[in-house]
């Protein structure tokens, strides 16, 4: 993020200075970004890290109050424009793991980010209420992102109050979908409207659907999959009545429907102690040709959807810090800080992808933790060879992850107990080694 880019977004946002200030807008933008890089530090320590190697006589020595006022004066729009300049796909055809059969793998999903407990934040973002109706300790922002699976870079992201559901936010991401993309999603998006609108962008979809969803067999395919119709509610009732009467006569005309291919398969997980568990997965896709897009490959490919969960872990834990909340106590401050968080994360992913592409290495093998530590170090030391140093550190043999990822499972459980003495509540949350076997079968529920 060179000064020319920062000056461009400052001018575009109308935040340029009319008079010379000790804290000009360009400096404040870099301060907000550094504030994200050092989440455990107060304003003064962030400023000290940002200016550690610069001559003291040539620098201002602002107070925490002055830095806070400078943030308020800067506003949200410059950070929004800066993220908009950086977001997008970063992988190229030369980047390993980004494409499958000429389709760019992308995924979307939602998550929640905890913010400071202030009256303004509670009024705007609300608290999450558990099943016991006991509210959470902190208000939460709901974030939905579209991620490039091969690089875990952010193609686009939107956020708002946590009471919003995932689909309305995902609808705002539709303009970022393009032909040549294969969108992966979980069962939270299997409604007709979501499938129709996503397919209308020209992108292909590979989504998991709920086990009880009616997916009639319109035409069986030779690989054990079949074509089905996903309809709106009115057309679904007509289609159900036609099937209930033994499919007598022609299929109802003028159905509001989308033709999809259904892939049902079983996944068996065998633990190290020999115990196993089998579950059935049902996918729907707009890739209708079983010869061009084999079902077995699509079933294995769907596991790439979890790359967005790894991206969220990098954003919320590796960068922000485990068990930390955003520090801002005002709504505008939260939006500004969250945009800075997304911007720094995206900048790190861009640098990592460029290094991986040049070396011909899969970006999955590069460590975000190592990248962030190196970025912090180059910032404190004002090292002008930062990009070169970052590439050298990331590509060291000892810093590269194995070519084959370890197969592990970790059951869902409470990670933060309400009482520090409730030791047994997190028992069993540690990952276990497993062997995963995927078998393609046509389940009885899908047979004609």
TrEMBL record:
Gene3D superfamilies: Transposase Inhibitor Protein From Tn5, Chain A, domain 1
InterPro entries associated with the record: RNaseH-like_sf, Transpos_IS4, Transposase_11, Transposases_IS4_N
Boundaries of every Transposase IS4 N-terminal domain copy: 1-84
NCBIfam families referenced in this protein's UniProt entry, alphabetically: transpos_IS4_1
Transmembrane parts of this sequence: none
UniProt protein name: Transposase
Domain Transposase IS4-like: from-to ranges: 103-345
Organism: Streptomyces graminofaciens
